[in-house]
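Recap quiz, item 2
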Amino acid sequence: MNEEDFDRKRRILIERLVQVEALRNERFIDAMQVVKRHLFVWDGHEDYAYLDSALSLGETGQTISPPHLCAYMLESLSPETGENVLEIGTGSGYMAALIAESIAPSSMGKEAWGKLTTIERVELLWEFAKKNIERAGYMERVDCVLGDGTLGFPPLCDVELYDKILVTASAPTPPTPLMRQLKKGGVMVIPVGEKHSQQLTMFIKGKSGEVETLPIQRCEFVPLLGKYGWR
Ligand code: SAH
């Protein structure tokens, strides 16, 4: 397939996501149009990049999330231009690029840009994602960190640093260090539940620190491992 085929397939996929109302907001429709998923799939999987399915990330045993889930995550997290965002579970770097394009749109001047920090615990994926994020043009907007994301970043820092936090692996409950690093008025989106079935859930931290919980939809993510995830 050439670039034109990829562009056409991407447009068709996005039309479908809009039709089923997974994607609603113009800004996120644009972000999914701008970020080329075929730059983030495992070698040899490019032709499948615009199917609405999860794809395997080779021998790492991890997966790149399906586009409809990426759309739901964007819509519920609702990253705004200029915000400071944390993602746990970089994987391929695709979701990271979508968030980066939302908080720091390519069409805007750099003075308006926000910043994404993304954490991955598997070294091979950290390297893979950095390469993908770089060739897609997002290196300046994304900090890639290798480590246990359940500790937050900087690890166990007790300051409310982030407007939004997205966890793209499933946990029994939202990790406490992450909740501490979320600003008041901020939103954390994370799949919570059992190992093989979860509910993508929004946790909204109120002005006095109280937390409201809003379920979004059933889903199945790979487990969040680490100190405050699955052991
Ligand atoms: N967002 C990714 C898909 C993530 S799959 C994408 O767009 O491609 C979930 C990822 O979370 C896996 O890569 C897994 O290695 C990672 N992960 C699991 N536990 C983690 C932890 N404690 N800290 C950081 N990453 C973790």
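The beta strands are 55-56, 63-64, 84-88, 115-120, 142-146, 162-167, 182-193, 198-205, 211-219.
Residues 62-65, 88-89, 91-92, 94-95, 119-122, 125, 148-150, 168-169, 222, 224-226, 229 surround S-adenosyl-L-homocysteine (CB under 6 Å).
End of item.
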